[in-house]
Amino acid sequence: MALAVYALTWMTCLQFGLDYDENVLYFVFFATITGYNFVKYFGVAKFHHRSLAGWLKTIQIFSLLAFIALCYYAYHLETHTLILIGLLGVITFLYAIPLLPMHYFRDNQKKLREISGLKIYVIALVWAFTTVILPLIDNDISISTDVIIMSVQRFIFVIVLMLPFEIRDLNYDSVKLATVPQKIGVKNTKITGVLLLIVFFFLEYFKDEVDSKTIVSTLIITFVTLLFVAFSNKNQSKYYSAFWVESIPVVWLAILLMLS
């Protein structure tokens, strides 16, 4: 996943003519590792460190090293970039930690990821801001129409990438999560994914600066993503989503680099 976010961020730099920004790209890579492990394992580990299994302790140590690297590269970023990072960090924190005031109007406390239907959009929003807005503001690129369109494209793209995961997890997710396939079914989820990919691709033509290489790479990756959405099912193989779908952004970057 960290490689996927790193790849999408690098693509933004390429498409806006920026040099390879080591500080931003490495920060994004290590921040993704730290944030993902925090969200995934906080509920398991919490504060019971002495009773943790060996594998979980290893993950904690690895996450700590990633956090140290994150801090090192964050130190070299611009102040306004750090403000955006702080906002994204708050969202990530609330995604994993129960919202304390919620018990006043709900039966029990919930994390953002457990609020019905919200999970997929929170992830897409954080990815869009991280991979598009963050590298641009750190390089003092103004928020133009093209930037907004790319952010919307990235938001849509991440939502579509999440659909095979949500289809896979139909057998395990609580119905209270109200995921897309739970609400509209697998077939309609796939149709929705295809329609979103069509919007994702044709948004490219609304940009002020249209590049043929970007269009070709976007068309290829749209078709590849469409196939993965179309063939996803509840009984998919272990690596279908967790490896192949997650690797799509890396493939997209590779295509763009080859065309360049």
Count all strands and give the number: 0
Indicate the CATH class of the largest domain: Mainly Alpha
**In terms of structural class, how would the helical and strand content be classed?**
mainly alpha
Strand content: under 5%
Radius of gyration using CA atoms only: 19 Å
Describe this structure in words.
The protein is mostly helical and 260 residues long. The chain has two domains: 1-139, Tetracycline Repressor, domain 2, CATH 1.10.357; 144-260. It has ten helices and no strands. It has helices at residues 2-15, 22-45, 54-74, 79-96, 119-138, 145-168, 180-202, 212-230, 238-245, 248-259. Helix 2 packs parallel to helix 4 and helix 7 (180-202) packs antiparallel against helix 8 (212-230). Mean pLDDT is 86; it is low at 100-107.
Structural features:
260 residues; mainly alpha; Tetracycline Repressor, domain 2; 2 domains; 10 helices; globular
